[in-house]
Amino acid sequence: MAVIDADAHVIETERTWEFLDEAERSFGPVPVAATAGSDKVYWLIDGKARGRGGNVGKMFPKESRELLDVSARLRHMDELGTDIQVLYPSILTEYTRRPEVEAAFCKSYNRWLADVWGQGEGRLRWACILPLMNIDAAVSELRFARDHGACGVFIRSIEGDRHVIDPYFFPLYEEAQKLDVPICIHASIGNGALESILSQGFEGGNFLKFKLTVVGAFHQLVTNRVPAQFPRLRWGFVETSAQWVPYVVHDLVRRFTLHGEEAPDPRSIMRDNRMYVACQTDDDLPYVLKYSGEDNIVLGTDYGHADLATEMEALIRIRDRDDVEPSVFDKILDANPKALYGL
Predict the structure, then answer these.
(1) Would residue 32 count as lying in a domain?
(2) CA 308, CA 306: separation in Å to the nearest integer?
(3) For residue 259, what are the domain limits?
(4) φ/ψ of residue 240, rounded to 5
(5) Residue 161 lies in a domain
(6) What's the total number of domains in the chain?
(7) Going along the chain, which residue ranges are E strands?
């Protein structure tokens, strides 16, 4: 049996942007200090400064979390009893409105991860980021990524002015289905104006802007029958816990009934729509599993970060629980992430 971390991260560094052609250099992020001699640094992207290093888990060795030494990452995975990690980016919000900047950004990031995958002995798989302002370019970039170790498409809960249900994205979904690569909606938001509105209050509104927008995307996809249009495409919902699944599934059953449809078995909604949700070790799993079923829950550590979802030893500690059968944990750690990511 393998142990698969369904949600790990990389911390972008100057190395990330070394894969740009000379003509693209001006589009790449540039590290800048807040003031002369300051330790606080930012990324300058498309003329705007954005935070860098605000969500870095210092418990993870620098050479591992930044992939400065791939072999060090693999050794740390061995210590944690992890066979495979699926890597997500750490820049999770809008960084440009210009297609040419986005294309360069995605190109270099994906080639960096392709290089990492080449050194990773098959243990470092990754979710690609795509230039979604140009859907034809996104489809082409997906083909490159899939051929170089990508096992998912990272998409934000809202992309610019579009929800994930927008038919604009359907050519991408069609190609992802053809290539057997899932669409993975990770805690994120890709609209700068909406991010600003939702960032008010304690912790910058992180729960509202990063978590609930992903929950809303799940609900929107089901109510608008998007998965039914792509009957082999899988969907991941990552770093939002799974505690919300009963609420949303219950709402969907009531909503279908309201519109005169036969109420589905709650446990069939995620299964029939090929949807997988990443849980946390303190979720009420017996309750969640009544609505998700056993085959559609995965688990991640949030490796590299330091926030509410981070638990470096999650893949070990999940087995300390005695309220779920060990065979279910086997699925959560092995069979289910293999099914989601096509491993």
Answers:
(1) no
(2) 7
(3) 4-25+57-341
(4) -130, 15
(5) yes
(6) 1
(7) 4-9, 30-33, 41-45, 48-51, 84-88, 124-128, 150-155, 158-159, 162-163, 183-186, 235-238, 275-279, 297-299
Measuring CA to CA, which residue among 13, 12, 171 is closest to residue 87?
A: 12
| DSSP-assigned letter for residue 286 | H
In three-state secondary structure terms, 271 is helix
Q: Which residues contact 223 (CB under 8 A, 6 or more apart)?
A: 252, 255
Question: By C-alpha distance, which of 208, 340, 201, 191 is closest to 279?
Answer: 340
pTM confidence score: 0.95
Identity of residue 150: A
> In the structure encoding, which two tokens stand for residue 215, read together?
């929950």
Q: Is residue 38 part of a domain?
A: no
C-alpha span between 68 and 79 (Å, rounded):
18
Q: pLDDT tens digit string along 28-38?
A: 898 887 666 66
CATH at residue 314: 3.20.20.140
pLDDT tens per residue, range 72-113: 999 999 999 999 999 999 999 999 999 999 999 999 999 999
Does 68 fall in a domain? yes
* Exposure of 308 in the CB half-sphere (CA atoms within 13 A): 12
Rounded distance between C-alpha atoms, residue 107 and residue 103, angstroms: 6
At 116, the amino acid letter reads: V
Q: Which residue has the tokens 């279910």?
A: 328
Task: For the chain, list residues with pLDDT below 70.
Answer: 34-39, 53-54
The tokens describing 265, both together, are 């078995």
Confidence at residue 259, expressed as pLDDT on a 0 to 100 scale: 81
